[in-house]
Structure formats: structure tokens, C-alpha cells
């Protein structure tokens, strides 16, 4: 390169190319990709760089601010390990995880909306008796859940698989507290009966806060945003000839219902966990719900 420069006439500007444009813009990166077999990866990077280019220009980002951004992203990476996925937490709290879910699993009106499974799902939850209890330690306010799995036309779906998982009354999942809760506490798999019905006994789930001790929690706290997730029960339902449903059912009365930290609440997912006398003369809560699946679609 030194040799090439030396042959330029004194005072002549070097030839501009895509690496020396004075007024750099995102299109320069896209131009470099043009014609290369980069596929979806290149397409995604081009869109990303265009968006970042717009951000830098709109904010007139200073070098010091840019350094801060890079330092923050480095911190997020360092906070992630095999047990904790800080990047997923960042995507969740920015609303990006739910956006991807909404774009990829739109359901016709009348079907129960899909949501993210979240980090506490276990695929190996044990099969429970339909009507039995999923609370292995009996701690908490008793809750009776009764539901039906239906197709969009209202037809009951017998033999459907209903996976359920939830936090305890303190807002903790059993896999967060392996030393305090029994293995597979408050989770299990059930099969719907001949009328598409399922039932289980449990305890009222508590709402919980996302972790505040990492870079994502600190960012949200600094912005004055809350990390609360309103109380809910997770369901994953599979039935022959239907799209799998993964969703949450939220307690309508939870004070955090309007500010879910990961934007998972939808009007169709609100339910009443009503006070009710339960079997055995105890007073507890009862939840009745229908989970409506979408028939498999072409394409
Ligand atoms: Fe959850």
C-alpha cells in the first residue's frame, strides 16, 4: 500500500472506494455485500447496519457514548453463562422476544394467543393424573384449576397433552430453588379426557421480578422501568391436527398486570382466580379456562 501511495501526484486525493468514503453511511456496507452469496445472514446484517446507521446519525452519537454502548454490551455478554442468559433477558425486556413470537405464530381470532415459554420450562415434567395435584409440598393458597382444550370450531379435543408449570406463592420456580422445593414441584403433564377436559390442584402462583442484579436489571431500574411479571400459570398444549399452543394465563387482579416486564400480557390471557370453597371444606381459589387451538394450516 505504501508503494501505491507514493506514485500519486503531490496533493492528489486518494481514489475514494467503499472503505474511504468521507460521508460514510450504512449503504456502503450493503454495497460490499452486493453480489456475494451471503443469503439471509447478509440480508439481516444489511438491515441491522442500516438501522444502526440511522441511530448514530439521529443521536449524533459521540465517541464516548459509542464506547459506553460497547462497554454495556460487553457487560451483558459477561453476565451470561450456562445458567443465566442475559441476552435473552435483554431481548425479553425490550419486547423483541414477544415481537418474534407474534410475527411467527399469529392465530385467528378465537384461538388462545401464543406467548414465549420463558426460561423455567422443563420438557421432562412428569405425567400427572387428570384431577390430581401438582403441588408436592402443599405450601400456599390452594387453587383448583379446571379447563377444556377445544378446537377453533368449539369441538372438544380428547387425549390432548397439557403441560403446566408455575411459580410457587413466593414467585419462585422449583428449578430456581432446587434445595428448597421438591423436584418437579408445581409442574406436570396431563391428558385431556374424552370431553377434552383437564383438571389439577395447585397453589396460587406469586408474581415475580426478573433478576435485578445484572446489567439488564440495572438498565431497566435506571430507566425507571419495573421488572415485575404478574402472577401466571404457563401452559403448553399439543393435540393431533392442531398447532402447538404455548401460553400463559394471568391473574387479572395482579397489580402488575399492566406493566409486565416482557410484554406477555394479552387481553385474551387474563383470567379470574376467584375465591371459592374447595373440596375438603377449605377456602381457596378456583380458575376455569378454555384453551383454544388452531387447526394445522397449509404452509
Ligand atoms: Fe413464568
UniProtKB/TrEMBL annotation:
InterPro entries: Catechol_dOase_N, Intradiol_dOase_C, Intradiol_dOase_core, Intradiol_RC_Dioxygenase. PROSITE patterns: INTRADIOL_DIOXYGENAS. Residues 1-23 are annotated as: Disordered. Residues 145-173 form the Intradiol ring-cleavage dioxygenases domain. Its cofactor is Fe(3+). Signal peptide: none annotated. GO terms for biological process: catechol-containing compound metabolic process. One of its GO terms (molecular function) is ferric iron binding. The keyword Acetylation does not apply. Keywords: Dioxygenase, Iron, Metal-binding, Oxidoreductase. The keyword Plastid does not apply. Belongs to the intradiol ring-cleavage dioxygenase family. This is 6-chlorohydroxyquinol-1,2-dioxygenase.
Amino acid at each position: 500500500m505504501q508503494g501505491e501511495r507514493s506514485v500519486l501526484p503531490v496533493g492528489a486525493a486518494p481514489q475514494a472506494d467503499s472503505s474511504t468514503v468521507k460521508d460514510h453511511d450504512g449503504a456502503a456496507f450493503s454495497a460490499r455485500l452486493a453480489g456475494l452469496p451471503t443469503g439471509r445472514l447478509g440480508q439481516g446484517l444489511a438491515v441491522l447496519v442500516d438501522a444502526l446507521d440511522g441511530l448514530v446519525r439521529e443521536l449524533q452519537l459521540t465517541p464516548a457514548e459509542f464506547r459506553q454502548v460497547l462497554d454495556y454490551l460487553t457487560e451483558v455478554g459477561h453476565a451470561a453463562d450456562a445458567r443465566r442468559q442475559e441476552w435473552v433477558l435483554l431481548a425479553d425486556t425490550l419486547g423483541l422476544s414477544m415481537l418474534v413470537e407474534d410475527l411467527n405464530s399469529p392465530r385467528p381470532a378465537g384461538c388462545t394467543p401464543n406467548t414465549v415459554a420463558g426460561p423455567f420450562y422443563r420438557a421432562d415434567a412428569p405425567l400427572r393424573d387428570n384431577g390430581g395435584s401438582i403441588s408436592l409440598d402443599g405450601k400456599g393458597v390452594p387453587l383448583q384449576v379446571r379447563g377444556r382444550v377445544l378446537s377453533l370450531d368449539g369441538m372438544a379435543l380428547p387425549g390432548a397433552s397439557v403441560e403446566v408449570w408455575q411459580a410457587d406463592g413466593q414467585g419462585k420456580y422449583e428449578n430456581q430453588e432446587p434445595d428448597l422445593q421438591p423436584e418437579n414441584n408445581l409442574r406436570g403433564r396431563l391428558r385431556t379426557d374424552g370431553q377434552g377436559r383437564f383438571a389439577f390442584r395447585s397453589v396460587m402462583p406469586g408474581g415475580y421480578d426478573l433478576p435485578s442484579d445484572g446489567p439488564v436489571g440495572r438498565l431497566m431500574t435506571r430507566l425507571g422501568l419495573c421488572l415485575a411479571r404478574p402472577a401466571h400459570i404457563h401452559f403448553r398444549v399439543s393435540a393431533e391436527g392442531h398447532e402447538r399452543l404455548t401460553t400463559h394465563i394471568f391473574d387479572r387482579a395482579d397489580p402488575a398486570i399492566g406493566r409486565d416486564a416482557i410484554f406477555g400480557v394479552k387481553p385474551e390471557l387474563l383470567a379470574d382466580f376467584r375465591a371459592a370453597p374447595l373440596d375438603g371444606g377449605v377456602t381457596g381459589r378456583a380458575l376455569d379456562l378454555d384453551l383454544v387451538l388452531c387447526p394445522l394450516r397449509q404452509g
